[in-house]
Amino acid sequence: MKYKIKRLPLLDLKPRLIVFVFCFQILLSQRVVGYLPDWVSGNLSISNIDYSVVTHVNHAFAWPDQSGNIMSYSNMFNPIISQIVHTNGAKILLSLGGWGNDVGFRVVAASPDLRSTFINNLLDVMDTYGYDGVDMDWEHPTSNDDRQNLNFLISEMDSTFNAHDPDLLITMAVPVSNWSGQWYDFSFLRFYIDFFNAMTYDIHGSWSSHAGHNSPLYSSPVGDPDGSVETGINYLVYTRGIPANQVNLGLPFWGKKYNASDINMSFSGDVVDKFYPEIINLIDNGWTYEWDSVARCPYLRNDEQSKIITFDDEESIKYKCEFAHDRSLGGVMIWALSYDLVQGEQKLIESINQNYLSLVDEKKSINPKSFSLKSYPNPFNSNCTIELDIKSPENIKVSIISITGQYIGQLLNRELPIGKIYLDWNKNDISQTISSGVFFIKVSGNKTQIIKKIAYLK
Fold this sequence. Notes:
Layout: E1 2-5, E2 25-26, E3 31-37, E4 56-64, E5 70-72, H1 79-87, E6 91-97, H2 103-109, H3 112-129, E7 133-137, H4 144-164, E8 169-174, H5 178-181, H6 186-189, E9 195-198, H7 229-239, E10 247-252, E11 254-259, E12 268-275, H8 276-280, E13 287-292, E14 297-302, E15 308-310, H9 314-326, E16 331-335, E17 341-342, E18 345-346, H10 347-366, E19 371-376, E20 383-390, E21 394-402, E22 407-416, E23 419-426, E24 437-444, E25 449-456
Parallel strand pairs: 1-23, 3-4, 3-16, 4-6, 6-7, 7-8, 8-9, 9-10, 10-16
Antiparallel strand pairs: 2-25, 4-5, 11-12, 11-15, 13-14, 14-15, 17-18, 19-20, 20-23, 21-22, 21-24, 24-25
Helix pairs in contact: 3-4, 9-10
């Protein structure tokens, strides 16, 4: 059954000038984002990724040079890669940056002309090789100028992407403490970024005062100033105001080796990164498995009690997945795919499947979405149709919100029956009261809330 509602005027409209144009739907969904560094292609082919678990593949890395050109590892780009990912029902994003590839970002972001060149070059790469968007991994902005220029870059990227293809995604890898996080304007970025990949690892390392866990779920010892996964998520969500469903919790598939007698003791010499396969085979071969019940993480200690290795295993991944679920985070993120590959098996990927996706599936079956939302055309300059597909009778409220969160007006607030509802948002209803710009359509029901960005152009 279909219903049509025509020309519903906005209530209590107030003008709000917005200068950026972009669109995509923000959905409350669970994600498993896996970074695929180009250097692991010999270990894990794109066909052998476990797509029953991974929803987004971040192909790493490309980066801008100081002229806005797209640089990458040799022979990294291949249209077959995206075809395989799409055939398996996942999305693939081009990950931009990575540690050490920051100089081009700083120069490009500071120049309007270079920003335009860089963004248009990105579109060419995405069109040619079938990417579904980009993942920004500038490590890291380091000044107020960088902070503001990153805002310019992301907003202009979002606007250009929307005009080209509104379905293109923009995501971002982000730090989880104020040491680097202070140079990110999350109050601005959260309106342009689809989701944030929280780097909840490297919490201890060569820079630390003690041999601590790479990724402790909880601070160990209690009150450790280096923090934990929990303090990192709290920083992003509570201190910096990123909605929890926009945050993916980072899961490291590698660990760190220290010259230390035990966990949280002093260490000497270099701290060496170790992949999961290098670690797991040491158990009972001169190394003893230990469990830190405070951090909810394991570590190994050698028989001479002179070295330790901190890492994540199936059990600690389980606790992190349960934490992500209990905190209603948008998903989890893996650095990096193939780092857990042991004799053809991926035990850490399987732990995500068993301890995260099973919880998600149960939650979805208990509380399915009670309606869906579409809007078209987008951007619009005449009429915009808002299509609601109602799955069960309930009271539905449709509101318009500015990009800064200001309430603009209400299109609908009534009980609706099962079926499709069409709201006709006509330019004549708004052209005298608000300027061209971007707004949120917010649709709320008893159990479901969906927010969609939409652009109005005079």
